[in-house]
Design brief:
By secondary structure, the protein is mostly helical. The chain has one domain: Rossmann fold (3-Layer(aba) Sandwich). Helix content is about 45%, strand content about 10%. The protein has four helices and two strands. Strands 1-2 form a two-stranded parallel ribbon.
Length: about 100
């Protein structure tokens, strides 16, 4: 097991987002798609922000990613506490995704 120590929460979020992009690309090469389970709450939001910024926004293989929600709450998307709404505003609206 490799343990990495980061100097800040932002550095940790960027490293995690980079790892997600690399693993997604690898899954696409190996299986033709990447499946990502998006967590709720405040913890993953900095990671979602990092994925929505250059250079990861351009290198993340968005079109071949399938997103799943791993949160137990079901709130209307426009409610402030909606995890889907937060992920959509912070990350998914920035990403070049197909609608539908």
């Amino acid at each position: 097991m490799r343990i990495r120590v980061f100097s800040s929460a932002d550095e940790l979020a960027r490293a995690t987002a980079t790892l997600m992009a690399v693993r997604a690309a690898r899954a696409i090469v190996e299986r033709g798609q990447a499946n990502l389970a998006l967590a709720g709450g405040a913890t993953p939001l900095p990671i979602y922000r990092a994925l929505a910024l250059s250079p990861l926004l351009e290198v993340m293989p968005w079109q071949a990613c399938h997103f799943f929600w791993s949160d137990e709450r079901a709130l209307p998307h426009d409610r402030p506490g909606s995890n889907y709404g937060q992920a959509r505003r912070i990350m998914l609206e920035q990403a070049p995704l197909k609608s539908g």
